[in-house]
Amino acid sequence: MSEPLKGLLVVAIEQAVAAPLCTARLADAGARVIKIERPEGDFARGYDTAAKGDSSYFAWLNQGKESVTLNYREPDGSALLEALIAKADVLVQNMAPGALERAGFGSEELRQKHPRLITCDISGYGESEALAAMKAYDLLVQAESGLVSISGGPNEIGRIGVSVCDIGAGMTAHSAILEALIQRSITGEGACIGTSLFEVASEWMAVPLIHAEYGKGAPKRVGLNHPSIAPYGAYTTNDGNETLISIQNEREWNVLCDAVLGVADIAIDPRFASNNDRVKNRDALNAIILYVTQTMSSQTFRKKLADAGIAYGAVNSVDDLSDHKALRRRNIENSTGQTLTLPAPPVRWTVQPRSSAGPVPKIGEHTDAIRKEFIG
C-alpha cells in the first residue's frame, strides 16, 4: 500500500476544521497523528450528531487519529506534550493566538529546542497585531474578506455553502508542510510555517480585488451566472430543472447558437458580438436563451449540449450528489463503532491504492497508552 508519510509523527493541537483537515490529509498519507484535545474534547465534536451520533465535521476530519486529552498549562500535561513534541516531525496548531507561546510551546522556542521540527500555526488573521485578539470562524472570515459581498443573488448576499475559508486554510497548511518536509530532506532543517483563514480568503479574492482597484469596480452578485463571461450560467427547461452552460470562446458561442439553440442569427447580433458585449447585454441574452430552453426538457437540452461539445452541468441537490456517477466513497468507523460511507479523499493513487482510514477516536481514547509510550 502507498503510504508516503509512514513513519512520520505529527502532533496536532487542533480544533474545529482548518487544522484537523490538514492533519487528516497527513494521516491519509500514512503519518501517525496524535490529536491533543481539552478534557472536554474538540468542540467540533458537539457541532451536530448527524454521523450516527458523531458530529459530521468530526467524523469527516479525524479518521485514523489518536486522541490524547491534557491541559498543557498544568505540569503533568505540559510534560506529556513536551515528550511528544521532542519526538515529533511536525507540530500543527490552531489555538487562539498566543495561547501556546504563553504556555512555553511557541513555534520559535520549539524550533530552537528541536531544529528538525516543522511547526505550522494556523490563525484567523495572520501576523496582524491589530487583529490578533479577534476571534475568527469561517463565516466571519467570509464576511471580513469580502467573499460574501460577491456571493449570492442580485438582491441577497449569501454565505458560501461549505466552510470554504477553513477548508482552504487546511489545504494551504498541508501543502506548505509537504514543502517543508522536502526541504528538510535536503537540508536537515525544519521550518516554521504560518497561514491564516483571512490570508487564504484574500488571496482567493485576487480577481475581484483587481477589478475593484484597477478595473471598473468589483463584480456584482449575479447568482448562477459568471460575472465576466457570458453565456455562463443556469437556464431552466420545461421540466423545471436548471442546467449550467459555459461558453469559453467565440467558436463555442457560434456552435451553441446554431447546433443547440437553433437560432444562428443571434451569433451575429451586434449586441452579442464578443464576450464583453454579451456580458454588457446579459439580460437580453439570457431572455433569448431561456425562450428556447423552456421549450425542451432538461434531458433534450443536455443531449444537445453534449452532442455539440458544449460544457454543461446539472444544478444538483445534495441528494443528487449521493447517486452521482463521479462520487467515490470509502467506509469509516465512527467513535461508537458504527460504519459510515463518506466521500473518499480527492487524491487517487492508481498504482498502489491506500488502505482505509482508521476509526474516529473517542475523547482521550489513547491518553494512557501514549503517556506510557512517551513518558513511561
- Under the CATH scheme, the architecture of the largest domain is 3-Layer(aba) Sandwich
Please provide the ordered H/E string of secondary-structure elements.
EHEHEHEHHEHEEHEHHEEHHHHEHEEH
- The biggest beta sheet, please? 6 strands, parallel
Helix content: 25-40%
Number of domains: 2
Shape: elongated
The Rg value, from CA coordinates, equals 25 Å
Beta-strand percent range: 15-25%
Care to count the β-strands? 13
Q: How would you sum up this structure, described in words?
A:
- The chain is of the alpha/beta class and 376 residues long.
- The protein folds into two domains: 9-204 and 326-374, Crotonobetainyl-coa:carnitine coa-transferase, domain 1 (Rossmann fold); 232-314, formyl-coa transferase, domain 3, CATH 3.30.1540.
- The protein has 15 helices and 13 strands.
- The chain has helices spanning 18-28, 56-61, 75-87, 99-102, 107-113, 138-144, 164-187, 197-204, 206-214, 250-260, 275-280, 282-293, 298-308, 318-322, 367-374, and strands at 9-13, 32-37, 66-69, 90-93, 118-123, 152-153, 156-157, 191-196, 232-236, 242-246, 311-314, 329-333, 339-343.
- Helix 1 (18-28) packs across helix 7 (164-187), helix 7 (164-187) crosses helix 8 (197-204) and helix 10 (250-260) packs across helix 13.
- The longest helix has 24 residues, at 164-187.
- The chain is elongated and about 80 Å long.
- The two termini are 32 Å apart.
- The mean pLDDT is 92.
